[in-house]
Amino acid sequence: xxxxxxxxxxxxxxxxxxxxxxxxxxxxxxxxxxxxxxxxxxxxxxxxxxxxxxxxxxxxxxxxxxxxxxxxxxxxxxxxxxxxxxxxxxxxxxxxxxxxxxxxxxxxxxxxxxxxxxxxxxxxxxxxxxxxxxxxxxxxxxxxxxxxxxxxxxxxxxxxxxxxxxxxxxxxxxxxxxxxxxxxxxxxxxxxxxxxxxxxxxxxxxxxxxxxxxxxxxxxxxxxxx
Amino acid sequence: xxxxxxxxxxxxxxxxxxxxxxxxxxxxxxxxxxxxxxxxxxxxxxxxxxxxxxxxxxxxxxxxxxxxxxxxxxxxxxxxxxxxxxxxxxxxxxxxxxxxxxxxxxxxxxxxxxxxxxxxxxxxxxxxxxxxxxxxxxxxxxxxxxxxxxxxxxxxxxxxxxxxxxxxxxxxxxxxxxxxxxxxxxxxxxxxxxxxxxxxxxxxxxxxxxxxxxxxxxxxxxxxxxxxxxxxxxxxxxxxxxxxxxxxxxxxxxxxxxxxxxxxxxxxxxxxxxxxxxxxxxxxxxxxxxxxxxxxxxxxxxxxxxxxxxxxxxxxxxxxxxxxxxxxxxxxxxxxxxxxxxxxxxxxxxxxxxxxxxxxxxxxxxxxxxxxxxxxxxxxxxxxxxxxxxxxxxxxxxxxxxxxxx
Lengths: 226, 406
Ligand SMILES: Nc1ncnc2c1ncn2[C@@H]1O[C@H](COP(=O)(O)OP(=O)(O)OP(=O)(O)O)[C@@H](O)[C@H]1O
Ligand SMILES: [Mg+2]
Hints:
heterodimer; A: alpha/beta; Rossmann fold; six-stranded mixed beta sheet; four-stranded antiparallel beta sheet; 35% helix; B: alpha+beta; 2 domains; six-stranded mixed barrel; binds adenosine-5'-triphosphate; binds magnesium ion
């Protein structure tokens, strides 16, 4: 079964009297374990589409199903529960909680899911090791480099073993070396754990990692290559 | 939950100065409330106690027709057998003292100066007269058989330029409506710390006052002091007196004061509300600012699946920490401040409220009741103030929050 199944969604933004059609009827299925890149020019609707998949926003029309469950009918709390249980997020800015250490940031989803302390501890250490940050566990975000922060974000996205990870331009604020390091880690985790990745990007170096490339233009999918 | 508290605590630590000043706003508000209520309690309490001790007693027995504003000396307006009634009442064991007193209006003159006075005949030996004896600051106290001695208050002495041993003319109204003059010697000068009382009240021994006013052995009133103010409601109804007499309690005799107190309470409530509104608005401001600054953080928490309810808890945890910090500061400042005014008092001078025995120095008095009530009130108001920003944070849409300040 597909992890993501999108049927004919549109999203219209209305600012004052101006309407923007960010998505104009998108159909997309993403299978389990895929490593998919969403590409397209600025303003083509990549972020909007990721927000639909991630239950952060709702389509104007059409439906989104995650793991076979229609999420367009869910209320706020149900969507929050959905995100907590099955979706991990990585953002362009290094979206960590500034008052918490790397360790605590990674632990956050586990706390929200009510895992017992011992299990949390093991899982956090395992993840920090996977992103090669064991020695930075007790640093707060402002004591970490951009690349390190983004790796903490990757670890956090994976913490509660989601089936789907959504990344919006994860390397846009990183230099080449750090960008590659983050992509290498994501790819490795995809191969080792089979978690599905969908990421939006402009960066040709990043696109080369993908095993499927979906191209958006002006709110429509114009190309889909595996 | 522990994580939420930890996060809230660190969030406050992130902007220490702002957190400190917001807590201080709460604390300052509470301190002010404590101080105000203590000063008022002190003023009301001591004013009432001193009015009772100096002027009205707990209970008075007097003729039903007596009008205290006129200080009438007609025999039918007086108590005919005061010593007997006083003796009976004094025998009750809740009673500290029961003593006849005679009031006459008159004036004192010295050289070209004169001043009106409430001439008060007292039994100098009665315990009810202790406050006057204890108040003597120069010269001597009266003795029952003095025949040409007066005891005058310090403000009166200053006004008429009198010293102990000086001659002073005393004129007063008599029972038959005439005026009687006599020269007296200032035997002593007293102060009770109550300007309104001291400036007008002149003491004579009761026997001399009766002789001079030709009221023989009559008295204006039987002045009764109890061992405790709270006993009034049990003792007064139990007294029985002849039908031409009536029993008045301190509540009747201080009606003006009681009225003033009720009136003052409503004023005070308005003040309290203003103070609380100020602290509340500081808290609301701080938290709204903090919600805006952390829009993105709220978005992240929401994106990783934190429900609105928990986000609200996070902000409520912050406001409760501010409230606790503020309340602690407020208690410390408030109690220390009150202690200072409790020991040193706080001079208000002559407030010019005639007819009321308001002391010229107020000593703050803190009651546990007030302390607890005000602390709870402040805490609750602060928490309520935190509610709006917390709801605001919990209602944020994750997308909007994530887009913010990119
Ligand atoms: N909240 C919003 N209100 C109004 N218009 C919006 C909003 N969010 C996005 N849009 C518009 O929708 C369209 C798609 O935006 P989106 O952010 O999805 O593009 P994108 O492909 O992610 O672009 P980029 O590569 O620059 O990130 C754009 O025209 C954008 O201006
Ligand atoms: Mg985008």
